[in-house]
Design goal:
Blueprint (H helix, E strand, L loop, with lengths): L2 E6 L4 E5 L4 H9 L8 E4 L5 H12 L3 E5 L4 E5 L7 E2 L1 H4 L9 H8 L1 E5 L15 H9 L3 E5 L2 E5 L8 E3 L5 H11 L5 E5 L5 H12 L3 E6 L2 E5 L7 E4 L4 H13 L3 E5 L7 H9 L3 E5 L2 E5 L9 E3 L11 H9 L5 E4 L8 H8 L4 E4 L2 E4 L9 E3 L3 H12 L3 E6 L2 H4 L5 H7 L3 E5 L1
Parallel strand pairs: 2-15, 3-14, 6-7, 10-11, 18-19, 22-23
Antiparallel strand pairs: 1-23, 1-24, 3-5, 4-5, 7-9, 8-9, 11-13, 12-13, 15-17, 16-17, 19-21, 20-21
The chain binds uridine-diphosphate-N-acetylglucosamine.
Length: 423
């Protein structure tokens, strides 16, 4: 297992190019199962979750061709369509479940393993009930045997009105891609409105789907018979952008962050301004300078978009450790997402956790130590903390980081971080 060896503290300066969005690309890739014609996707991030999804598609019979240093991919059908999505591929990546709906929608059958992914919800795990219940409403039947979901439908799925009992990004994406070839009209109420959902809809409509927003959290999908050959450029990564913005703020840095639409992270940028960062918004660029003294944020609360994203809470926690007083974070999406807090304490942070609320004392001078990543965004938070820590640190289990951050050590080296990967 690889580790990062990082010598701090560093002041980050220079330019960073943001990679394509992993979370936007994954459902887009899963939906290629619905096409008879080829799909070409540009700006794919070279991260492990994308490789896993491509391997999954390959195992289901898709032909995958790479171009442009693997950032562009052409996915086409072969005659060897398969319906079995194995545990070995789904165990590391929750988004693998997104192949279930398209397989049933297009071929009326699938055997799909229960998925894995980051452990963020303590004992409640990461359920897929919202996905399965909604697919059932479209006419999918399923039973569960030996950890696999055996699903089928009699003919095409049928358009229905579905109201999600709570907001889920994955279930929204899954139902969007599963209903575009249905008979009739589907109305999805209570959908997620994250930019990655909007990117998926833009791409599906470009491919000939008929999806319309008919309310703030309501989508109407009129079924179509087929999708056409499509070229699409995946949006930039919102969380990677936010992570680099925190990095600049944390280290008194000065970064020009390129390749992302700043209007999509207004909430985060406004918060960083409150901590003292100077931010200039340009077209697809953010110029951000960190303050000499970081100001505290009294209370940060994670919420669905356009609220503050749960995927940036660990990184902001690091920033608040260095702020000029006490702050708190309430985590509303994943109830036990504070595993990185214990590791931050090894670097000197003073954080106490009660239920889904963390209290962060501030005024911490991080001192280098050995720390271990527990999940994808925790790994980003630990890397940020050790960059600003005095001395040498190691961050182990960076395979979590490799799932979602493209070339992180190359990008960090370029802007002044003393970082080495040790195998
Ligand atoms: C996606 C993102 C993840 C992000 C999360 C919330 C991807 C690949 N992952 O995850 O990075 O942290 O959105 O913005 O895009 N839930 C259920 N039943 C379900 C589905 C979800 O109870 O069937 C619960 C979850 O446990 C969680 C909440 O709903 O408490 C929100 O989860 P959801 O929005 O579905 O997250 P993901 O799509 O898995």
């Amino acid at each position: 297992m690889d580790k990062f060896l990082i010598k701090g503290p560093s002041i980050l300066k220079g330019q960073v190019s943001i990679s394509g969005s992993k979370n936007a690309a994954l459902p887009i890739l899963a939906s290629t199962l619905l096409f008879d014609k080829p799909v070409t996707l540009k700006n794919l991030p070279r991260v492990r979750d994308i490789d896993t999804m491509l391997n999954l598609l390959r195992s289901l019979g898709s032909k995958i061709e790479f171009f442009d240093n693997k950032k562009k991919v052409r996915i086409s059908k072969t005659k060897k369509q398969k319906y079995f999505a194995s545990y070995s591929l789904l165990k590391t990546m929750r988004a693998g479940i997104l192949v279930l709906g398209p397989l049933v929608a297009k071929h009326q059958k699938s055997i799909t393993s229960f998925p894995g992914g980051c452990v963020l919800n303590g004992n409640s795990g990461r359920p897929i009930n919202l996905h399965l219940n909604a697919l059932q409403k479209l006419g999918m039947k399923f039973s569960i045997l030996n950890g696999y979901i055996h699903a089928s439908s009699k003919g095409k799925l049928k358009g229905k009105t579905i109201k999600f009992p709570s907001i889920s990004v994955g279930a929204t994406q899954h139902l969007l891609i599963s209903s575009i070839l249905s008979d009739g009209t589907t109305i999805l109420k209570g959908v997620a409105t994250e930019p990655e959902v909007v990117d998926l809809i833009n791409y599906l409509n470009a491919a000939g789907a008929n999806i319309k927003w008919v309310g703030k959290r309501t989508c109407q999908i009129i079924g179509v018979n087929s999708l056409k050959e499509t070229n699409y450029t995946v949006m930039g990564d919102r969380i990677e952008t936010g992570t680099f913005c925190v990095a600049a703020t944390l280290t008194k840095g000065n970064l020009l962050i390129k390749g992302f639409d700043p209007s999509l992270i207004k909430t985060e940028l406004d918060l960083l301004k409150k901590t003292g960062a100077k931010i200039k918004i340009l077209n697809q660029e953010i110029h951000i300078k960190g303050p000499q003294k970081i100001k505290k944020i009294n209370h940060l609360v994670t919420k669905e978009y356009a609220g503050f994203p749960t995927d940036l809470a660990p990184q902001f926690m690091v920033l608040l450790c260095k702020a000029n007083g006490r702050s708190s974070i309430t985590e509303n999406i994943f109830k036990s997402r504070f595993m990185h807090a214990m590791e931050l304490q090894r670097l000197g942070a003073k954080i106490s956790i009660k239920n889904n609320q963390a209290t962060i004392e501030g005024n911490t001078n991080f001192i280098g130590a050995e720390v271990m990543s527990s999940d994808l965004r925790a790994s980003a938070a630990l890397i940020l903390a050790v960059i600003s820590a005095k001395g040498i640190s190691t961050v182990s289990r960076v395979y979590h980081c490799d799932r979602g951050y493209e070339n992180i050590e190359k990008k960090l080296k370029k802007i002044g971080v003393n970082i080495k990967r040790i195998s």
